[in-house]
């Protein structure tokens, strides 16, 4: 018998989660004290772009020389000699390029000006299940292929979030054959608090289809040296209890489905960094973090900020040194009191210090919006005093459970 107390608490979501849709800009004069953040942005952006292109050209040339001489892909460790003592030996073919990445959101055509600092090692981008599998069993990975070509030419890496979650009313990242597929059962999808449609991953037929997608992606990209990291969407269900119950939800079914999907990710990508985004409930996050450490799947979350008390924080602390840790600074996380934009932008040094010193992250994904917040972060990365090793000061020692 289910009771309200037995159900995992559901995350309270905004009607439009700006950090994920990446479709919103911010008024540069939104709050007092932001003038210096945006002053001279155009000049700095052009200078950073020119510097980055020169550095990337040199890097690509070095990679090509290495590849021609050794008959292999780009080297898997680029840390300076002074950092080598902090880098663990990796199994052959295992990818490990921790550091700072630009989070561009979804359905964006990549551009050079998206990556304004040479400190950025690559891009994190969302790919919707509905785009990757437009019809049952027929996959379209053309968007990923184009992004890989763009990044490879520039010596950069891709962190791909494979997701089915959207945050606007009337939207979905679920394939139409599942949304409309009565043969998969009446509980196959549900409508969230913000009006978007999610898959009921605890329904076996739905879960199996998502695991099949991961297997197809792994077959194609696990040994592609440009594809650095694959992450699954956050664990929060985004709907109130009656809606979930009507879709056949139970704690046990939900947790078991997440674990099987995490295992499928591990098996599909043995040589690639694997991350399960965590975000509510605390009980579920604790159970999944323990399981992630057992099977070698990393943890992280879609939001981190020194003033946000989220279950992800405890997950990162628990998993430090065992599995990779990766989290994103999304739209709301640039503000002093997220998601209150009126509180003003937070100094990005405080966000970086929190991710490095408190959460011990290996990867930080910096969202492009709001523009003022992202520009301040990019300027920070370019400061002369900022760490110059390849990981940009983040933990670069490989965790014990990385690779096959």
Summarize the helices and strands and which ones pair or pack.
Layout: H1 18-21, H2 35-38, H3 41-70, E1 99-106, E2 120-128, H4 129-132, H5 142-153, E3 157-163, H6 176-179, E4 189-191, E5 197-199, H7 204-221, E6 227-232, H8 241-246, H9 251-268, E7 273-277, H10 282-295, E8 298-301, H11 311-319, E9 325-329, E10 335-337, E11 340-345, H12 348-358, E12 363-367, H13 371-381
Parallel strand pairs: 1-2, 1-12, 2-3, 3-6, 6-7, 7-8, 8-9, 9-12
Antiparallel strand pairs: 4-5, 10-11
Helix pairs in contact: 7-9, 9-10, 10-11
Structure description:
With 404 residues, the chain is α/β, with parallel strands linked by helices. The chain has a single domain, classed as Glycosidases (TIM Barrel). It is built from 13 helices and twelve strands. The chain has an eight-stranded parallel β-barrel, surrounded by six helices. A two-stranded antiparallel sheet has the order 4-5. β10 (335-337) and β11 form a beta hairpin. α9 runs parallel beside α10. The protein is globular. The two termini are 40 Å apart. Residues 1-45 and 58-85 have low confidence and may be disordered.
């Amino acid at each position: 018998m289910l009771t309200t107390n037995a159900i995992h608490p559901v995350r309270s979501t905004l009607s439009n989660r700006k950090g994920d849709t990446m479709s919103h800009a911010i008024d540069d004069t939104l709050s007092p004290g932001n003038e210096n953040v945006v002053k001279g942005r155009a000049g700095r952006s052009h200078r950073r772009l020119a510097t980055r292109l020169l550095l990337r050209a040199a890097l690509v040339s070095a990679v090509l020389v290495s590849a021609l001489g050794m008959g292999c892909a780009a080297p898997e460790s680029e840390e300076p000699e002074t950092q080598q003592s902090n880098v663990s030996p990796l199994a052959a073919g295992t990818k490990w390029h921790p550091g700072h990445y630009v989070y561009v959101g979804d359905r964006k055509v990549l551009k050079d000006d998206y990556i304004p600092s040479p400190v950025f090692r690559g891009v994190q981008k969302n790919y919707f299940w509905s785009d990757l599998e437009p019809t049952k069993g027929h996959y379209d990975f053309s968007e990923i292929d184009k992004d890989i070509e763009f990044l490879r030419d520039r010596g950069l890496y891709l962190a791909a979030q494979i997701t089915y979650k959207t945050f606007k009313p009337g939207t979905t990242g679920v394939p139409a054959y599942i949304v409309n597929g009565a043969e998969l059962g009446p509980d196959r999808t549900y409508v969230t608090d913000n009006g978007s449609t999610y898959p009921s991953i605890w329904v076996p037929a739905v879960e199996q289809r998502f695991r099949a997608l991961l297997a197809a992606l792994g077959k194609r990209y696990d040994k592609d040296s440009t594809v650095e990291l694959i992450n699954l969407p956050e664990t929060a269900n985004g709907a109130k209890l009656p809606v979930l119950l009507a879709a056949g939800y139970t704690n046990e079914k939900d947790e078991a489905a997440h674990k099987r999907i995490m295992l499928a990710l591990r098996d599909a990508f043995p040589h690639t960094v694997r991350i399960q985004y965590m975000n509510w409930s605390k009980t579920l996050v604790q159970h999944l973090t323990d399981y992630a450490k057992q099977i070698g799947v990393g943890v992280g979350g879609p939001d981190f900020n020194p003033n946000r008390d989220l279950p992800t924080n405890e997950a990162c602390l628990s998993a430090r040194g065992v599995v990779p840790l990766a989290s994103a600074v999304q739209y709301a996380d640039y503000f002093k009191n997220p998601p209150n934009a009126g509180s003003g932008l937070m100094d990005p040094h405080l966000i970086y210090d929190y991710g490095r010193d408190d959460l011990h992250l290996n990867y930080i994904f910096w969202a492009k919006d709001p523009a003022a917040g992202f520009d301040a972060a990019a300027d920070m990365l370019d400061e002369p005093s900022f760490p110059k090793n390849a990981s940009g000061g983040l933990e670069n020692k490989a965790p014990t459970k990385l690779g096959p």
